[in-house]
Amino acid sequence: MELTNSAADARRKEERRDFDELVARHHRQAYNIAYRMTGNRTDAEDLTQEAFIRAYRFFGQYRREMPFENWLYRIMSNVFIDTLRKRPKARIRSLDEPISTSEGDAPFEVADERAGPEETVLTKDLDSRVQQALETLPDDFRLAVVYCDIEGLSYEEIADAMGTSIGTVRSRIHRGRRLLREKLKAHKDLVGELGE
User: CA–CA separation, 192 vs 196, rounded Å?
Assistant: First the structure.
């Protein structure tokens, strides 16, 4: 019995060492993908951490002959979609609808969110404009475009990561790129960079 326990302990230590090496190798790329999915650092860090936690929890089920990053991207996609499903739905209200307060009804005021001069200069950066446009895409299109055009994955790798067919991946990439072009029409220099 003791021999079995020590063999199991040795196997767990070896798996942990293997997992730690994979995390070190893929953490930066996983974070970059998470940032493109979520659009901000805090959510990207949370998504990356949760994906690696789940990957560790199910590492015994990972088939070593398959690329680790494909398996991890599938986990990340699932965590991202699970997170979106748990978020409360936004309530749409009319700008003419007053807000009820303890002192009576008050007009609904919207803050002026136009960028100041400093922010205007910063948003001229290619990355920030593309990121803003990416955030407006439906989730499946955003994931497909990020995996293909930003991370350079093949259609097969994307299909595996998203748990769908190659035809669906091609369709999502095509439609996602088209939506991005529409969002970026004001920036004609960017549209050519996104391909047809």
Answer: 8
